[in-house]
Amino acid sequence: MTDLKKRNSLKLFTAASASLGLLSVSGCQSVTPLPVSAKDADDLRQWQQADQIIAAIKPVKFPDRSFSITDFGAAAKAGFDNTAAIAAAIAACAAAGGGRVLIPGGRFETGAIHLKSNVNLHLADDTVLSFYTDRKHYLPYVMTRWEGVELMGYSPLIYAYQQENIALTGNGILEGNGAVDAWWPWKGDWERRNWDYDASVDQVKTRSPLFEMAERGVPVSERVFNENFLRPPFIQPYGCKRVLIEGVTIRNSPFWLINPVLSEDVIVRNVNCISYGPNSDGCNPESCNRVLIENCLFDTGDDCIALKSGRNNDGRRLATPVQNVVIQDCIMRAGHGGVVMGSEISGGARNIFARRCRMSSPNLARGIRIKTNSVRGGLIENVYIRDIEIGEVRDAIVINFFYEEGDAGNFMPQVNNLHISNLTVQKAQRAFELRGFERAPISGVTLHHVQFNNTAALGVLENIAGIDQLDVSLNGKAISI
């Protein structure tokens, strides 16, 4: 490695660490001794930053007091609405200075739940918290973000706005009750492929006007629709600090399952995300800082994990990247993608780490995926992925600049410093789908120790400026891209 490359590598590591407040100038001088490969040494330096991100996340902490929802009138019986009882327990817990709100064993029916600072909503092991599907239970409208665009919309099923030190824990089940006759038909085009289409509830009636409003810069407070068919996400902490989601199983969501927005110090741990409806993304942090997703299971109808930062002009208006994210020890089954960035990525993404994840399903479309276009734009940089085992997948590695609108705008997508190492694929239709623009080719990608076994085709390679590769093979034979 040249001295210049060494200095540039050190600059990247130092600047990223400084943005976290993790590393002093003197601290740069203490690094792990270089192994034999200088390239591997650069990779090691970057992975030290992943551990620093985890150490920098501020944890939640709650007083040792408990408030059972049954003390506030809740009952585990069919047809009984527990919304008011849960809200009263949360309010009492918050007023007392915080603690745990307990959902005891049984099946409790409810509408929207709004968390408050210093409250841990805890589900007992044999609890099912079942959410209504009538939209009236998610009124009045709240400040929310839908597919990367802010509006006044339906409350997420579990919501928190500008709260601090909040948690959702326990081994119980969160049941969203999304189905072919509830929530999911609002998708519209998805519905046409599965049952008779009902144009009266097609989300396009709201989605298109919302996106037009955002492009025209209409104030968020005025983005209100009397006829609204935008399904709410299941869990959305919005503008929150210190968030923990741990242990729960989330099923049959109307829309995205876990969607922290403009939040910081977020931990999602030991969560099962199981939902096969349209847009059933598992965990989508949007414009968040310092996020840890670990030991989770994703079996979904869309992307397992997708990192986002706003759509088009609305994302550029807020200009807040998703950054300093660590994904580790997760299992991905069905889904449109395993670890994904985009497509709502206009605010950018940086300092993203994914390691020790396993992916496999006949219904897993892509392993590693970046999706964007020249309407979205956005800079995706400093992404490190290693120790990934993919059993069965359609396309293993995808970078697609032609997603949705394609090359129809003036905001060039950029991917810089994407490093993939120690990735093994056992079965795939295609190793790659890499599609850049002729005027903005894909560059800044490194592949080290990547093996594609039992793979039918190399795939699509369009407008690639060059890939730094070491020990890359297809069906046992070395390849050069």
Report the principal-axis shape. Answer: globular
Strand content: 35-45%
Radius of gyration from CA coordinates: 22 Å
The poorly predicted ranges are 1-36
CATH fold assignment of the largest domain: Pectate Lyase C-like
Which architecture of the largest domain does the CATH hierarchy give at level 2? 3 Solenoid
Give the class-level CATH name of the largest domain. Mainly Beta
Output the CATH homologous superfamily of the largest domain: Single-stranded right-handed beta-helix, Pectin lyase-like
Secondary-structure content class: alpha/beta
Helix content: 10-25%
The rounded distance between the terminal residues' Cα atoms is 22 Å
Total of domains: 2
Major sheet: size, sense and barrel closure? 25 strands, mixed
Task: Provide the residue-averaged pLDDT.
Answer: 92
Enumerate how many helices there are, as a single number. Answer: 6
User: What's the total count of β strands?
Assistant: 30
GO molecular function: polygalacturonase activity
Keywords: Glycosidase, Hydrolase
Protein name: Glycoside hydrolase family 28 domain-containing protein
Family: Belongs to the glycosyl hydrolase 28 family.
